[in-house]
Specification:
The structure is a single chain. The protein has one domain (4-71). The radius of gyration is 12 Å and the shape is globular. By secondary structure, it is mostly beta strands. It has a 3-stranded parallel sheet, with no helix packed on it. It has no helices and 9 strands. The two termini are 20 Å apart.
Amino acid sequence: MRNIYLRGADVRGGINVSGAQLAADFDCAGVVVYRPDKVAIAADAMKAGGSVILRPKPNCVATLVRHVHELVSAEERPDL
């Protein structure tokens, strides 16, 4: 798969991209995910050849996953 573009989307039920192999970007800028008490974005072992963008929607309180570094394998990513 080349990329996943969810910019500005409203999602109910979560997003699961675990194990995805992306040639380019995983773009979730401005996305709102509603999944109380469960994982909103599951991205275990996902690899992105481009950028991983998790910028919150303006005027929203965003809580990012405790282990954002697990979105990308052990590689050092200056764009994350």
